[in-house]
Design goal:
The chain has three domains: 53 residues, no CATH class; 50 residues; 40 residues, no CATH class. The chain is mostly helical and 181 residues long.
Length: 181
C-alpha cells in the first residue's frame, strides 16, 4: 500500500497482480487474506522459475512456422530437427496444441496435393513412368509388380505378349478413357 492507503497501480499480468487488483474494494481482513494468497502465488512463480528440466521451447509463432515447414514438404522428423528438438517433443507439442497440429498437417497436405497434381499432369502429358507410378498407387490390385498366378502346367496359347506391350496398351486405354470422358 502507498502512504495514502491506496494500492499502487500495477498491470495485472500475473496471478499475484490480479489478486492485488481485485483487493482494492475489500475489508482489511479480506485484504490480509489476499495478501497471504499473493505471497503464496509469488512464491510459486519464483519456484517455477527454478524448476528442473528443460524450459518449454514452444512459441505461438511456431504455428505459422509449422505450416510453412509442412508446406515445404518436410517430414515430421525434419521439422523437429529444424527446431533442434526430438520427434517426441514435436509429438507432445502437436498433442498439447491442436492449432499447431492442424497447421502442420494442413501444410503437409498442401505439399502432397502439389506433388499429386504435378504427377497427374506428367501422366496426362505421356510420361510413362508417371503413368505407371500413378496407376500402381491408385489401383494397386490391377497395377502391381507381383501377381499371384496359378499355373496348371501347360500353355493354351503359344503367343505371349511382351510385358511392355501389355503396359503400353493398358496405359493408352486409361489415358484415352480420361481424356475422352
Amino acid at each position: 500500500m502507498n502512504n495514502n492507503g491506496t494500492l499502487p497501480h500495477r498491470n495485472p499480468s500475473t496471478p499475484a497482480d490480479r489478486l492485488i487488483a481485485a483487493s482494492h474494494r475489500l475489508t482489511r481482513a479480506q485484504q490480509n487474506s489476499l495478501t497471504q494468497k499473493r505471497l503464496e502465488c509469488e512464491a510459486r512463480e519464483r519456484q517455477s522459475l527454478h524448476r528442473r528440466g528443460r524450459k518449454l521451447l514452444f512459441r505461438e509463432a511456431m504455428i505459422t512456422e509449422g505450416y510453412k515447414l509442412g508446406a515445404l514438404g518436410l517430414t515430421l522428423n525434419e521439422i523437429a530437427t529444424f527446431w533442434n528438438v526430438s520427434a517426441k517433443s514435436l509429438a507432445r507439442w502437436r498433442a498439447r496444441c491442436p492449432d499447431f497440429a492442424v497447421a502442420v498437417q494442413r501444410g503437409r497436405d498442401e505439399a502432397d496435393a502439389t506433388v499429386i497434381q504435378a504427377l497427374f499432369d506428367q501422366a496426362k502429358a505421356g510420361n510413362v513412368t508417371a503413368m505407371i507410378f500413378w496407376l500402381k498407387n491408385r489401383q494397386p490390385t490391377k497395377w502391381r509388380d507381383k501377381h499371384d498366378l496359378e499355373h496348371s502346367g501347360g500353355l493354351k496359347d503359344n503367343h505371349v505378349c511382351p510385358p511392355t506391350e501389355i503396359i503400353f496398351t493398358a496405359v493408352k486405354e486409361e489415358v484415352d478413357a480420361h481424356t475422352t470422358g
